[in-house]
Automatic annotation (TrEMBL), chain A:
Annotated ranges, domain ABC transporter: 4-234
Protein name: Sugar ABC transporter ATPase
GO biological process: carbohydrate transport
Organism of this sequence: Ahrensia marina
GO cellular component: ATP-binding cassette (ABC) transporter complex, substrate-binding subunit-containing
TrEMBL record, chain B:
Family named by the database record: Belongs to the binding-protein-dependent transport system permease family.
PANTHER family: ABC TRANSPORTER PERMEASE PROTEIN, GLUCOSE IMPORT SYSTEM PERMEASE PROTEIN GLCU
Organism: Ahrensia marina
Designated name of the protein: Sugar ABC transporter permease
Key words of the record: Membrane, Transmembrane, Transmembrane helix, Transport
Membrane topology: Multi-pass membrane protein
Segments passing through the bilayer: 20-40, 86-110, 122-140, 160-178, 199-221, 227-248, 260-279
Coarse class of the protein's main subcellular location: membrane
GO BP terms, alphabetized: transmembrane transport
Keyword NADP: no
Statement: the UniProt record of this protein carries the keyword Cytoplasm: no
GO cellular component, one term: plasma membrane
Domain of life: Bacteria
């Protein structure tokens, strides 16, 4: 077990720069998730940590020691690949013991390690099978077994669940989290699925175009996004972003949203110091669907709830919740209501805006206004 | 009612098509097998019977004397040795050349797909080019190189020439096959600590059976049937089967022993035939694997 530190990492393929100065740090036993859309450089970053790709400049420290120039097998890491990368010509047991075989560890010790890992992952009865005879979930387990048996300082996971069907993905997600709790080994995990990121991570790094957008705990990334990209990328359905104008109403600032039917919607804003600079100007008002709900569903612990009548355009019952599409400022916004909220499409309903959860962005720079 | 009628029609029309297909196939089988029949039938006849007239008839008087003669006593050039020593020469040339060109083709394919380097595309392009160069062009440079290495007229020299001529195609086969081989497996093996050759030997090669069969068949057929290099570069002790067969047929002492010539020609073709029969089904399978995924 060890901490991982990445300092000002740059990586270029000839003239194309794919990682533009990444700084990250994860403590011993932490679970770091690298998340971002495809092509953001997250898998490249993982490969540079593994040593499968060279870096252009910067530094990677595992357990405080630089791994520059070290062969992947010497970095004391183990990796689980998206395609599982099980050796097709070997049995499950041979797959798991291949690394030990290469290092010349004797058979009895190999056997002990295989038994240990297969009992953790419950793959004992699969040991004599070939990978082609396994289901997706079983292959996933074997791939994890091959990583576990190395007992590494850091585990690297490259989108390990993206080839599984939806139900199995949720099961394996829980399993990985349980495994992490049990082993306590540092994990770096790449995914494009923001739900996976939020559920698994102790720290999330959001990447886009090779630039680190935000690095923080799941709570920080979700509730305190640094810019529009992070705000919309994390969370599903994604955050509503509505153009609004800031106005000064005596002791409080308010934002005004132009509404098609009811003139304009006015919402009070507190405790956001820099918003003063935007009086009379446009800002992007961000509110998550769960902070925009029916009166009865509003968060009672919130200190700042504003109510407003809105036109409900579409109602989408989803069993546990009801989603409503609302027209706010000419843009569609999604509200998340209680399942049995009494609303009807095409009619007005009073919605509660939890303004303590509201965030604001500069429309030009897309950066957060604090 | 109507359905029953239409079904009847469907069956009978498909029977008609089927009959037609079989008829055409039978014609082609006859067409392709006729020369083989002529060769086999006449190789078992005494010479008198052939000169007596009907090439198409079965032998009246079966004899294996022509085969024995072709194998061990027929006049090849000036020596009455039969084809036997030349058959052995061919094996001594082709087996190492096929082995070497397959091994190096596999290594080239492995490097060109899994250990990419700057300019690898260019290297592959040049190797491809070697597939399409007419071999006549390389005769004189080939002779120069063999002379320089002191291998002119030797078995080793012919092995080298066939190896060099074959490596383009074997590289192409293996490169296309390995292009479809998941690179993540190589990465996983690297993390497991396997070296360059361990990855090749323990991960890639065990999964390469179909393409190895394709390459071996291809190389064996080409090299066994080669006449140009054999005629150009062989000496007295290294003449391959094909050249010897030519000498047998063209020996101008006495009468033309057609029955011996037929037997000799079949002997010369036998090894390739054998390779196709043994490994033929893998050939198609391997070609498809390379073609579809590559």
């Amino acid at each position: 077990m060890a901490s991982l530190k990445i300092k000002n990492l740059h990586k270029s393929y000839s003239s194309v720069e794919v990682l533009k100065g990444i700084d990250l740090e994860i403590e011993d036993g932490g679970f770091l998730v690298l998340v971002g859309p495809s092509g953001c450089g997250k898998s490249t970053l993982l490969n540079t940590i593994a040593g499968l790709e060279d870096i252009t400049s910067g530094e990677i420290l595992i357990g405080g020691n630089s791994v520059a120039g070290l062969h992947p097998s010497k970095r004391d890491i183990a990796m689980v690949f998206q395609s599982y990368a099980l050796y097709p010509n070997m049995t499950v047991a041979q797959n798991i013991s291949f690394g030990m075989d290469i290092r010349g560890i004797d058979k009895a010790e190999q056997k002990k390690a295989i038994d240990n890992v297969s009992s953790i992952l419950q793959i004992g009865e699969l040991l004599d099978r070939k990978p082609s005879q396994l289901s997706g979930g079983q292959r996933q387990r074997v791939a994890m077994g091959r990583a576990l048996v190395r007992d590494p300082q850091v585990f690297l996971f490259d989108e390990p669940l993206s080839n599984l069907d939806a139900k199995l993905r949720v099961d394996m997600r829980t399993e990985i989290k349980r495994l992490h709790a049990r082993m306590g080994t540092t994990i770096v995990y790449v995914t494009h699925d923001q739900i996976e990121a939020l559920t698994l991570a102790t720290k999330i790094a959001v990447l886009k175009d090779g630039i680190l957008q935000q690095f923080g705990t799941p709570d920080e990334v979700y509730n305190d996004p640094k810019n529009v990209f992070v705000a919309t990328f994390m969370g599903s359905p994604s955050m509503n972003l509505i153009e609004a104008t800031v106005a000064d109403k005596g002791k409080n600032l308010v934002i005004e949203i132009a509404s098609t039917d009811a003139g304009k919607i006015e919402l009070p804003v507190k405790n956001i110091a820099s918003l003063k600079d935007y009086i009379g100007k446009k800002v992007l008002f961000g509110i998550r669907p769960e902070a925009l709900t029916d009166r009865e569903g509003a968060d009672r612990t919130s200190k700042q709830i504003a109510h407003h009548d809105c036109m409900i355009e579409v109602v989408e019952p989803a069993g546990s919740d009801t989603f409503a599409v609302v027209n706010l400022g000419g843009k569609e916004a999604i509200a998340r209501l209680r399942a049995d909220a009494k609303i009807v499409a095409g009619e007005h309903a009073s919605l509660a805006f939890n303004m303590s959860k509201a965030v604001f962005f500069d429309p030009e720079t897309t950066q957060r206004i604090r | 009612m109507t359905r029953a009628i239409s079904q009847d029609n469907a069956v009978s029309s498909s029977r008609m098509t089927r009959a037609l297909i079989y008829a055409v196939l039978l014609v082609f089988i006859f067409y392709y097998l006729l020369p083989l029949y002529v060769m086999v039938a006449n190789s078992f006849k005494p010479l008198d019977e052939i000169r007596g007239g009907d090439l198409m008839a079965l032998p009246k008087d079966w004899t294996i004397a022509p085969w024995a003669s072709a194998w061990s006593s027929a006049q090849i050039g000036v020596e009455p040795t039969g084809l036997k020593p030349y058959f052995i020469n061919s094996i001594l040339i082709v087996v190492p050349a096929v082995t070497l060109s397959t091994i190096f083709g596999a290594l080239n394919g492995y490097v060109l797909t899994k250990w990419r380097f700057k300019g690898d595309g260019l290297v592959f392009g040049m190797m491809l080019l070697s597939c399409f160069i007419p071999f006549q062009i390389v005769l004189i440079p080939g002779a120069k190189v063999l002379g320089f290495l002191g291998l002119a007229g030797t078995i080793e020299g012919l092995v080298l020439i066939h190896f060099a001529a074959g490596i383009g195609f074997s590289t192409l086969f293996f490169r296309n096959y390995y292009a479809a081989f998941p690179t993540e497996l190589v990465k996983a093996a690297q993390i497991d600590g396997a070296t360059f050759f361990q990855i090749f030997w323990r991960i890639l090669l065990p999964s390469s059976a179909p393409i190895i069969v394709v390459t071996v068949i291809w190389q064996f057929t080409n090299q066994w049937n080669d006449f140009l290099f054999g005629a150009s570069f062989s000496g007295f002790g290294s003449t391959p089967m094909t050249v010897a067969l030519n000498n047998l047929v063209n020996s101008s002492t006495g009468v033309k022993e057609y029955n011996v010539h037929f037997a000799g020609a079949i002997l010369a073709a036998l090894p390739t035939l054998l390779v196709y029969i043994v490994a033929g089904k893998y050939f198609v399978r391997g070609l498809m694997a390379g073609a579809v995924k590559g």
